[in-house]
Amino acid sequence: MTAATNAREAILNSVRSALRRGPLDDARRAELDARRPHHTRPAQDEELVARFIRKFESRAGTTVRVASRADVPAAVEAYRADKGLPAHAAVGAALQDLAFPGLEIHHDPAGISETMAVSQALAGIAEPGSLMMASGPASPITHNFVPDDHVVVLDAGAIVGHFEEAWEVLRARAEGMPRATNIISGPSRTADVEQTIQLGAHGPRRVHVIIVG
Amino acid sequence: MEIRSKEFKQRAVFAIHDASLQQALGKARGGFVGKRAQQAAELPEFEQLREEAKNTKNHILDNLDHYLERYEAAVTAAGGHVHWARDAEEARRIILDICKRVDAKTVTKGKSMVSEEIGLNEALIEHGMEVVETDLGEYIIQLAHEPPSHIIAPAVHKTKDQVSDLFEKAHGGPRKTEVADLVNEARRVLRDKYFKADVGITGGNFLVAETGSSIIVTNEGNGDLTQTLAKVHIVTSGIERVVPTLDDATLFLRLLARSATGQETETYTTISTGPRRAGDLDGPEEYHVVLVDNGRSKMLAGRFKDMLRCIRCGACMNHCPVYGAVGGHAYGWVYPGPMGSVLTPLIKGLDNAYDLPNACTLNGRCASVCPVKIPLPDLLRELRHMQHQQDITPVMQKRALQVWRYVATRPKLYHALEQVGARFLSAIAKNGSIRRLPLAGAWTDVRDLPAPAGRTFLELWQGKRGQK
């Protein structure tokens, strides 16, 4: 037996001996695997999009609502001009159906000097007002964390009430769990110096959501 | 890190007389408590969630072997590797081996209390690697060559001025004095490190058996940059952090941010499942999880099983009057406050941390805010009992207890001594309080003792009955 299997067996045996039993039998294991918890969900009585906006903005995020996907490039341009950002951006290939006139874009990961990224969210969670991003070839994870400004496209119909519904979205994916699932509630922040809240600690300084529909 | 819990008393005295520390603790005290209370009040289901969280953790612990095996299988299916470490030494060796194999020069780290527990930084540095803590609080104390003094706010003991000094020394001038400028400076310096890193190490708030994922919760995004930009991502976690499903993780997520920082949610909740996949443009090429036992499985056997429910929110220390007075460093090891006073003797040995279970007034505030309802005062009392049974109580204290027992089991003698005592204390009092008391200098050095009225309760009671 190698050291690694030794350690594994030793820990599992130590757990079992502490619990005063041997390995669980197959029936009990099947029972545990079939367990579907129904924990209490905090009550919500607000329209989902309204709640998402209220909660997301309460954590220093910003939002704008547009009628259709075709309006996204203009909303991105309006944000860029308003913040006075350079006219280039890392854009996830999930948005490659859109043209961004006047903006120099690429679909590669964000490098250290990237100033803005534009991403497609998988879902929104109204409960805490959070975006749910799934990493993949069309949505590089560096876009979520490296640039100072992160603009996220979120379909109004993809906003769910509770976390549990967002997990159902993940379980329904043909490709299974994303490698990285990022739940994002506004810009990066820290309170590590005298409990003073400061935005833009390591991740984006600003997160702007374009809600479509 | 080396345990220094035997020096608790000296370190506590030092802490009480440290003006900067008292200034920093004073600023922190109100914030956490008030914000948590507000969050709890705003969520009508909060108490219900605490009860469910307690029951769910108990269910997990009763079936821990099964959920660990399921978790391991799911991680492997997602292309990751699970390593098992019986103790700190084994955990260090596993991580060192991975780092050496990929010829790591720079290792970035997100906040991980388990990595502190196993003394990882020292081991990596000893082998010539540059280790960079990326959580701002951890970065500050790394520059100061200090351990964390709080499990979620590691630099809570530092004032802004002290941070300014540390940054000026490490990064060169000009000296920054505004919080925004200090944060920006750290952001700039650490960016280079993320991109340079060969290995990124994070903790794991939850390990999900259903999906084989590790979950971390941060506000800064440092954990994400750490695990995204390095070639290899290593997760360090205790074996008790596994949960069956994403829905179970949600139960604890709803309690964690509210109990820890008094926020409804932290900024980033990140669920990581295996390494970079075919077609992915970024993300780590390798994904490893090191499951650390280090005394945990033994705790499952008895009274201290309750302690394994801990989700490391820090609410107990935020509400502890002793922690609030002396700060985290006095406790002398990795975990301070009430949870640390239970864990430290259990992991490092009763005789190595004698004072910790005794540095408690049994006021019960920690238990009343614990999101998973750990009966911390009961566990501390149990540890005191064990200390007595194992005969490691100091001789003087044992003598005193023997004397007290002799007197307390003889009511006449007890009441007679009480009468003498009450009159003596009343006689030496000035304006209703006693400034100095022989043999009780430790008490009266830092506060006055309220003087008794001169007659005992029983005397007054009997006098009153006589009047009737």
Task: Provide an overview of this structure.
The complex is a heterodimer of chains A (213) and B (468). The model of chain A has no long low-confidence stretch (mean pLDDT 96). With 213 residues, chain A is α/β, with parallel strands linked by helices. The N and C termini of chain A lie far apart (60 Å). Chain B has 468 residues and is of the alpha/beta class. Chain B folds into two domains: 293 residues, Rossmann fold, CATH 3.40.50.10420; 73 residues, no CATH class. Chain B contains 23 helices and twelve strands. Chain B has a six-stranded parallel beta sheet with strand order 1-10-7-4-2-3, with helices on both faces. In chain B, strands 8-5-6-9 form a four-stranded mixed beta sheet. In chain B, strands 11-12 form a two-stranded antiparallel ribbon. The longest helix of chain B is centred in the first third of the chain and has 24 residues. At the A-B interface, helix 1, helix 2, helix 5, helix 6 and strand 9 of A face helix 2, helix 3, helix 4, strand 1 and helix 8 of B.
Which pair of chains has the greatest number of interface residues, and how are they split between the two chains? A-B, 76 and 98 residues
- What's the level 1 CATH class of the largest domain in chain A? Alpha Beta
End-to-end separation of chain B in angstroms reads 67 Å
> Can you tell me the CATH superfamily of the largest domain in chain B?
NagB/RpiA/CoA transferase-like
CATH first level of the largest domain in chain B: Alpha Beta
**Based on helices, strands and strand pairing, what is the structural class of chain B?**
alpha/beta
Largest sheet of chain B: 6 strands, parallel
Placed side by side, the strands forming the largest sheet of chain A appear as 1-12-7-4-2-3
How is the CATH topology of the largest domain in chain B named?
A: Rossmann fold
Percent range for β-strand residues of chain A:
15-25%
Count of helical stretches of chain A: 6
CATH homologous superfamily identity of the largest domain in chain A:
NagB/RpiA/CoA transferase-like
Oligomer: heterodimer
> How large, in whole angstroms, is the Cα Rg of chain B?
25 Å
Low-confidence stretches of chain B: none
**What form of chain B results from the Cα inertia axes?**
globular
**Average of pLDDT of chain B:** 94
